[in-house]
């Protein structure tokens, strides 16, 4: 499926393909020695090009001002709905809430069967057995946070058991959080080994590695953490837990998109990106789609390689979708609250 989106006075094409085309790369083996020691890993990560902070912020701000023409807005809204990881991660979560959320994930607009389902439902490990029977065989993924979410402060055996239990209960995606204390202390090999161990324990489940960029302090650290996670086997890199401010921002996501783009050139392996936290409106979501296309390219405009972690975003997208179809807004309470 290819849709032409007009942005401002220019146009670009957004192609949606199930399998991304991999450019000729030098092969993953060329980086196999990077993690052979703490010193080698440190040398590699600190040898990455520095991020132009002002430039990153300016480019993200510029892309954030671009407007989508009405003729393409419907496509963009459906695309964004199909990229959502519909999330509930509260201490007050109940089986009833998770069942309702899972049902909504399959049929976001109960009155309109043409509305696409979301990409995944994301819950705590204890709620995976509740969501699994509803989502099984539907194509909507079941993600679970693990590894002592959101702090990441637990012994490795506890993190691995957390992961193992979630996968055994039916999760086919694991969202793990790195130990930011270890990373910021320069213990890169420790972080690498934990990610690699979780990846092995997760087995066939896809691994999303949460960097918690709001605690990393600099764009250079975001770039280093992105490469570290990918080298250790991440299938996705994710900005935030949603529990720390700031969460997802356009400049941070820009840095991460540049990292996955460059990683694919170097290794031939394509890794996804997931901004999460603070993305609440259709306008916000469309800004991220523009950012993806302009930074990493159209190969990432697919749920296999780009997700939006959100809870309240879906209802705003549904309101905008209804407005485009009927010419009128429904009230905010027309759709079920998440």
From TrEMBL:
Superkingdom is Bacteria
Key words of the record: Lyase, Schiff base
Q: Does the keyword Lyase apply?
A: yes
Family affiliation: Belongs to the DeoC/FbaB aldolase family. DeoC type 2 subfamily.
What cellular component GO annotations does this protein have?
cytoplasm
> What name appears for this protein in its UniProt entry?
Deoxyribose-phosphate aldolase
At the top of the EC hierarchy, this enzyme's class is: lyase
Reaction(s) catalysed by this chain, per the record, are:
2-deoxy-D-ribose 5-phosphate = D-glyceraldehyde 3-phosphate + acetaldehyde
Q: Name one GO biological process term.
A: deoxyribonucleotide catabolic process
The protein's matches in Gene3D superfamilies, at most eight in alphabetical order, are given as: Aldolase class I
Q: Hey, which pathway is this one from?
A: Carbohydrate degradation; 2-deoxy-D-ribose 1-phosphate degradation; D-glyceraldehyde 3-phosphate and acetaldehyde from 2-deoxy-alpha-D-ribose 1-phosphate: step 2/2
Pfam families reported for this sequence: DeoC
Organism field: Rugosimonospora africana
């Amino acid at each position: 499926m290819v849709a032409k989106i007009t942005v401002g006075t220019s146009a670009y094409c957004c192609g949606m393909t199930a399998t991304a085309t991999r450019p000729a790369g030098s092969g993953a083996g060329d980086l196999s020695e990077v993690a052979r020691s703490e010193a080698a890993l440190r040398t590699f990560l600190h040898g990455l090009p520095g991020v132009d902070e002002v430039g990153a912020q300016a480019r993200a701000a510029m892309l954030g001002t671009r407007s989508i023409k009405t003729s393409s807005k419907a496509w963009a809204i459906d695309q964004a709905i199909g990229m959502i990881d519909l999330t509930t991660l509260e201490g007050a979560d109940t089986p009833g809430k998770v069942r309702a959320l899972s049902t909504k994930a399959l049929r976001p607009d109960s009155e309109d069967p043409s509305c696409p389902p979301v990409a995944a439902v994301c819950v705590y490990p204890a709620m995976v057995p509740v969501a699994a029977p509803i989502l099984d065989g539907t194509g909507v993924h079941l993600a679970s946070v693990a590894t002592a979410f959101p702090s990441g402060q637990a012994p490795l055996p506890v993190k691995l058991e957390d992961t193992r239990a979630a996968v055994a209960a039916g999760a086919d995606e694991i969202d793990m959080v790195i130990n930011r204390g270890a990373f910021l202390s320069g213990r890169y090999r420790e972080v690498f080994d934990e990610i690699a161990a979780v990846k092995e324990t997760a087995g066939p489940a896809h691994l999303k590695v949460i960097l918690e960029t709001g605690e990393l302090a600099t764009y250079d650290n975001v770039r280093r953490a992105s490469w570290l996670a990918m080298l250790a086997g991440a299938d996705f890199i994710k900005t935030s837990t949603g529990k720390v401010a700031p969460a997802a921002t356009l400049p941070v996501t820009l840095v991460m998109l540049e990292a996955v783009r460059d990683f694919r050139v170097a290794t031939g392996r394509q890794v996804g990106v997931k901004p999460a936290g603070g993305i609440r409106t259709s306008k916000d979501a469309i800004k991220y789609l523009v950012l993806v296309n302009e930074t990493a390219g159209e190969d990432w405009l697919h749920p296999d390689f780009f997700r939006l972690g959100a809870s309240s975003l879906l209802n705003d997208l549904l309101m905008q979708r209804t407005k485009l179809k009927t010419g009128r807004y429904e009230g905010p309470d027309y759709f079920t609250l998440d």
